[in-house]
Design goal:
Layout lengths: L1 E8 L4 E8 L4 H14 L10 E7 L9 E7 L4 E2 H7 L6 H20 L2 E2 L8 E3 L5 E3 L6 E2 L22 H4 L6 H17 L10 H10 L12 H7 L10 H11 L4 H13 L9 E3 L20 E3 L65 E5 L1
Length: 374
Amino acid sequence: MGVVWQAWDETLRRIVAVKCARPDDGQAARRLRKEAQYAARLHHPNIVPVFDFVEEPDDGTGGEATCWIVMEYVPSRSLAQLADDSGGTLPPEDAGSVGCQIAAALAKSHALGVVHGDVTPENILVTEDGVARLTDFGIARALWSDVTQTHTTGVVRGKPKYLAPELVKGRSAGEKADVFSLGASLFASVEGHSPYGKVDHPMAYVARALQGHLEPAERAGRLTAPLTALLEPDARRRPDAAEAHRLLTRAAPPPPEVQGKLRDQASHTHTLPLASLTLRLPHAACRTASGAPPGDRGGGAVRGGGPGHGRGRRPDVGRRRQGPGARRHAHGHPARRRHRRRPHGRPLQAPRRHLARPFRRHRTRPGLRRVGPL
């Protein structure tokens, strides 16, 4: 769907992750916009937060706009990378710790009416201190949207090896499908293969899902019972995310130090207003808050702002009126204009410049470093 870049926020002095949709993929741009809308509603220590959404209008040729989504940069490895670095599998207690945290994130997401739709080991990030974060809500949808998780061509979205059987059968993607995908991701991390078996072709996974063929866990240890529940083929008997969190917590809770970090993050979790974001982006230009087109300077950096971001002039209090037409007192001295007392500082008015304007000095030196493809 796109690529992720590491960028530098020049105003708030921090590293951020910038996800860009391919400019020639209109569907990807629309999904990226929807991802930003859904993810921005979710504030949880186990969900990667979204800071902003930037859109560069088309160049007048009738093409799709280029979209960027600005997220927190999380130095981490995916669950898939952790398993690969450990020889292909993880200890059950490590996988269980990750599963507890992601189940909590899904419970929060589902409580707000958002289905992730693509829970895979690649979309589960784990930091060096063991905190797991769920990312990439690219094919998320609202729970009340009664649609199947398919493209217009009928191809099922998501990776077949982690898809719930009901999705393969064309049914609506509910919250229980996320629970199955979490179980499949944890199964793969401890067993080294999908619960649908050691097959290579995507259609083989689809065939086994249609048949309800699931491999039993052999190395899961204490996670065997929770994984069996999460991988229940019948969605009606499968636990929801909150119950999955309880099952995983009883079997393999996160270490105390991880729980402490999560409590600290939860107490400080809030949305940072990106009032003056300046990102060095290639071809950067975005729509202003008022809907006006960006300035005519060259692309290179994008600055977003809010009311009061522009330069304002303090009201002149007590200025004398001069000139030939000035009103005068009896003694010939200019009259003083009477002003009401006003607070000092910038007036509460619209900024004098565009809220989002590219800067010429960054025109030839984009400050992005690519993190990797999605």
